[in-house]
Amino acid sequence: xxxxxxxxxxxxxxxxxxxxxxxxxxxxxxxxxxxxxxxxxxxxxxxxxxxxxxxxxxxxxxxxxxxxxxxxxxxxxxxxxxxxxxxxxxxxxx
Amino acid sequence: xxxxxxxxxxxxxxxxxxxxxxxxxxxxxxxxxxxxxxxxxxxxxxxxxxxxxxxxxxxxxxxxxxxxxxxxxxxxxxxxxxxxxxxxxxxxxxxxxxxxxxxxxxxxxxxxxxxxxxxxxxxxxxxxxxxxxxxxxxxxxxxxxxxxxxxxxxxxxxxxxxxxxxxxxxxxxxxxxxxxxxxxxxxxxxxxxxxxxxxxxxxxxxxxxxxxxxxxxxxxxxxxxxxxxxxxxxxxxxxxxxxxxxxxxxxxxxxxxxxxxxxxxxxxxxxxxxxxxxxxxxxxxxxxxxxxxxxxxxxxxxxxxxxxxxxxxxxxxxxxxxxxxxxxxxxxxxxxxxxxxxxxxxxxxxxxxxxxxxxxxxxxxxxxxxxxxxxxxxxxxxxxxxxxxxxxxxxxxxxxxxxxxxxxxxxxxxxxxxxxxxxxxxxxxxxxxxxxxxxxxxx
Lengths: 94, 443
What we know:
The structure holds 2 protein chains of 2 kinds. Chain A is an alpha+beta fold. Chain A has helices spanning 6-10, 27-30, 38-41, 67-71, and strands spanning 14-16, 23-25, 47-49, 55-57, 78-80, 88-90.
């Protein structure tokens, strides 16, 4: 299949998930964020808006591109680092 | 690698085993220096994503003669196509050549898959005597009196000392920022690329793209291909797969609230692209940031006491529309940093007063020269009119030009004038842009 859903795309990537998150999002800070760009920019679709206005983040399927770090408009909402060595995304073909 | 590296002292510590890092490690190891190459991925290339076409085979040929015969390359690129897109139409400039520079070794460029290529390149550095330490993240630099004297890795007793640190840690360079060499980057300077490798039978690829043997093609697209987002798209042929993806300027993606993977799907569904990818199977999806602003985002300081920055970490990525190159500049800058390190080690002096030679070697290898020459181009390429208006103009003019419906044929100037008004382009702007193109590309 050439046309694929986002879930199908994500299933092709290999991850070695660490038990501690490398990116921590303070979802409370996102409540007052007017743009919340992370939600649409993240190529892995890991930022989930919740009904109460905060944002939930799943680090497990992060492709470590850094887009959220650069687009974040709320000072201190995203603590960004790389996963421990050998963990995180492992590309095989790209 | 063994844990014994922790207590050792190195001449050179290279952070990041991409093309810049491996080139720096290779050349310094060959000079007999004690070199450590640190990579955070499970293997070199595990975290790396490019289109990818590696142009500048000749550069690597000087370092490793006949490199393409032993390296995992896909196809040599003898055909390039620049395509302007409207939602329904594509107008292109198709270049293909059997001239010696394109059809004969060392060839002009190769399509590659980074996890495979980077792994091979790091192995060459290892074979030359560099120590490769994988699965290791560098979190910080070690300082003594403002002089960089090593790195702090995220491991127990994770201090590794060395005379010189070469940061080749990519577009989102933690080290360049920590060292105060790179400022915080703006979202209009970075593009997000999302990409797919799509498996397709080798014979189908040859026939579909009119290729013989190991010939390959690089197609690049601009216009409605990324809807209203400023960016572009690419499609490259590998041996038995296609690499295709879209690039979106981060600020523009954010403003338009478009999801990058949705743009990727509409790219594949475009009437000019769909027949090219038909029957393929998705093998891997990936994403990466690209420093695209060129000259204006190159750090003011590329060297400091005990440290140099190379590759994407130094924003050595040339995106001018005509040229979309980075791996060649990564290798060139890695070699320039390596040559500087060799000289510094010979003199046993590692201050900025010795490492300033890096600038000279970067000029000699035409890295800074190229970026300076094309310094106006990235802004023009990412401008609203080139991104959306002109591709539409080219498409509509061609549509009107080639359509035969019995009405009177207009000559070219009135035809052009008519479509200019249809798409809402102001002649004044066209003239301004013509000047901009001239200043960016002609002299």
